[in-house]
Amino acid sequence: MKPMPSSLIFIVEDDRDVARTMELALQSFSFTTQCCRNGAELMRRLRTQTPDLCIIDLGLPDMDGMNVMQHVRSISDCGILIVSGRTHVSDRVMGLELGADDYMVKPFEARELVARIRSILRRRQIPDLSSRQPKPPVAEFSGWHFNPANNTLKAPDGMEQVLSTAEADLLRIFLANPNRILQREQLLGNREQAPTDRSIDARVSRLRRKLDCEGQNKEIIKTVYGAGYLFLSSVLWQTGTEPDPKS
Prior knowledge:
single chain; 2 domains; disordered C terminus
């Protein structure tokens, strides 16, 4: 697979050796990189530049990495990859809950770093085919409406919210496979992950909360213990065609 040479990557890492290792690995695959030694330097750069992805270390000297990540997410739709020496599951879950696209624990192989970044950028890449292809259909299920063109989710009461890329990708898989048990591996799509990694459960939990209607007790995403997850709703695509299942 060819790299994405136009992608600009910000590396937010105070350890010069680690930052240099990541920088050399990414540059060898034709990525453009810029290093920030702390959160304040990143904030300054974001005023004038828009990266395609930020690699953020949680252990920054001046700011908590989680707060830095939240600030980036509030002003930019760029990809976010957390790298950290924190191995506790709660840190991983919190990072994903707050909007990170992926989480890597130090130390890691350079080729895995490149693969994770490619995966994030690939999910965020918008094909330049709008003039030749019809607009994606809008899905209707249990009173909800989801527009894949802009990742907008409209509740039965009319309230709208924009899903993150990871949440929208997950919902697309559920919508393409209604009333069918899906294993965690199927929900990961093309993303490689260790069998003990439970980050997909955190993503399902976030999506489940987005689909929670106050005052309604209807569970749309059901956990099937020992098997996976089940999307309990019929799905109507307003154009009358459904996408191919991603199973």
